[in-house]
Amino acid sequence: RARLSRARAAPVAQATAEPAPTRMGSVVAGTYTGVMQFIFAAACASIIFAPVGLPLAIGIQHGLVGFVVTQAVVARTTSVRGGVALAVPSFEVLPFLARFAVIAAGAVGAGAGPGVL
Known about the structure:
Order of helices and strands: HHHH
Oligomer: single chain
């Protein structure tokens, strides 16, 4: 009787198993998150960097480097099978960050060197 119930349970367990990750799936997920992050970095740069007169290219680079570092740390430290893809933060925080950038730029001054705050 125990053998019969195990034999019936096996197809159900196989049907609910997660599919194995594929190279194509990884490429699609990486492309999607990369494009999504680039759009977010461009939005951050235009909302945060532009009001204080900083180059937008630097803002985009900061956003992309931060995303890559965060993605690498999360992917390395997580135990999720098949990997992890991060989503971008909420756009609702950008106006507050823009105001902070204006305050910080005013406090430091236009002639301050890099890393001075």
